[in-house]
Every structure is written in C-alpha cells, then in structure tokens.
Design brief:
Helix content is 38%, strand content 37%. The protein has 95 residues and is an alpha+beta fold. Helix 1 packs parallel to helix 2. The longest helix is centred in the C-terminal third of the chain and has 25 residues. The termini are far apart.
Length: 95
C-alpha cells in the first residue's frame, strides 16, 4: 500500500514514515483495494496532530490523533482506522 505523507511545521522523518508503513499495512487485511492513503502531521502548540484519510473499496475513512510523540500518534491512527475498517468489514460480511 502506498502512503502519501505530508509534514507541516515539522521536519520529515524517514523512521516515522517507515514505522507508519509497517503499522498501517494491517489495514489491507480488511479491505480489498486501497485507492489512496494520505497521512499528514502538523505541529500545533507543541503537540503533533496526525490525520489519516483512507479511500478503499469505494469508502472513505478518516482518523485523527494528537500527542507529543509522533510514534504515539501513529499508534493512535492505527487503532482508530482499524476499528473503523473492521466494523465496515464486519457489516459487509454479515450481509
């Protein structure tokens, strides 16, 4: 899955992008085709705000998390997006 990263008021981090790729790869277990996945990081008042927009199987999913640590932000995004995608997958498979 190709993930597009955007950094605003924050230096780009290869390590954080690699970590994000590994964590968010689990999403592909619940969806068939990922059309786009965009992750943006922004620093606001000393905290990192992370947003994830996922377009998969004709559906749009969004997640937002904020923390002082970028890795905690990524972990929060993973939890939130997996919850959304998992619920959608369960609904779809119960039909």
């Amino acid at each position: 899955m190709k993930i597009n990263y955007t950094w605003k008021h924050l230096d780009r981090s290869e390590a954080a992008e690699t970590y994000g790729n590994e964590k968010l790869e689990r999403v592909t277990k619940y969806v068939g085709k990922v059309l786009s996945c965009d992750v943006s990081f922004e620093t606001i008042h000393g905290e990192i705000h992370a947003n994830l927009k996922l377009n998969a199987d004709g559906n749009h999913f969004n997640a937002h998390n904020e923390s002082k640590d970028i890795y905690a932000c990524i972990d929060g995004l993973e939890d939130k997006i997996l919850s959304q995608v998992g619920k959608h997958h369960d609904k779809k498979s119960s039909r």
